[in-house]
Amino acid sequence: MRIGIVGAGAIGMLFGGYLSKHGHDITFLVRNKNIEQLYIQQENLSEPEPIKCQIVSSIATMNQMELIIVAVKYHHLSSLKKDLDSLPREIPLMFIQNGLLHIQFIDTLKQSNIILGSVLHGATKSNPATVQHLGVGVTSIGIYKGKWTSLEQFLHSNIENFPIQYSQNIYQILFKKALLNSLINPLTTIAHVQNGELIKNESYKEILRSIYEEILEAFVECKELLSWEEVVSLCQNTEKNYSSMLKDYQSGRIMEVETIVGAILREAENRNKALPILNTFYLLLKEMNKAGE
């Protein structure tokens, strides 16, 4: 397939690196015109490998793509609307943002076929042109609007270390991931610790459990959707990782506070429920976020 990827962040590069290994024709749309080659460093491998791809700086070069993956963060989406609207309506767009607010943006687009994705891989950029794969997860995708004739072909892109699965209820998966991010990201960012410290340190673990309990009270369906054991397991499996929110803060970038934590708070408010602990974290993170603006 001819696949375009908008954005060369860690997750976009991860997609490009593995999909190119499967034989797809990959084109990256990037803002940095100085980047001539992108690299992926797979887990447990010492040397980065070049990603077989083209690198372009104009959306017009993507008019013949069979799929375009939009891999920028939520707060960059609005600046892309004009470019995305200029594409042929029939080209399927796949959005792989964190949180939930990007769905509101998607509803403003003219595209006929929209796919949503949820990514559970661990990845970080060691430099502007290299992504490090820190932990294997699952990519879940689901059709949000329209149809996708190449769905089965894309699902066959499953390769070692990059599993892909289809979900009939992709919104539920996005919501669950937003809940997990709301549990882990704010606390690790404010405490400046790796994920594993949230269960090793008794004080952090007590705070984490308190946020989890108030989420259960607001969203009763989470008792089946997200167990406490699963939260602990995620912290264990990613114990050496720094959350994406903490990495953004340390790098002086805008953190995804609104689309992750803010979206969960608004959903609770819609149910006439309060999340006082998470709201306190949200207010603190909003102040911290001003450093990245």
UniProtKB/TrEMBL annotation:
Species per Swiss-Prot/TrEMBL record: Psychrobacillus faecigallinarum
Enzyme Commission (EC) number: 1.1.1.169
Alphabetized Pfam families for the sequence: ApbA, ApbA_C
Name of the molecule in the record = 2-dehydropantoate 2-reductase
List, alphabetically, the SUPFAM superfamilies matched: 6-phosphogluconate dehydrogenase C-terminal domain-like, NAD(P)-binding Rossmann-fold domains
Instruction: Identify the enzyme class.
Output: oxidoreductase
Under the heading InterPro entries, the entry gives:
6-PGluconate_DH-like_C_sf (IPR008927), 6PGD_dom2 (IPR013328), ApbA (IPR003710), Ketopantoate_reductase (IPR050838), KPA_reductase (IPR013752), KPR_N (IPR013332), NAD(P)-bd_dom_sf (IPR036291)
Q: The organism's lineage? A: Bacteria, Bacillati, Bacillota, Bacilli, Bacillales
What keywords tag this UniProt record? NADP, Oxidoreductase, Pantothenate biosynthesis
Reactions accelerated catalytically: (R)-pantoate + NADP(+) = 2-dehydropantoate + NADPH + H(+)
NCBIfam families in alphabetical order: apbA_panE (TIGR00745)
Pathway where this protein functions: Cofactor biosynthesis; (R)-pantothenate biosynthesis; (R)-pantoate from 3-methyl-2-oxobutanoate: step 2/2
Which parts of the sequence belong to the Ketopantoate reductase N-terminal domain?
3-145
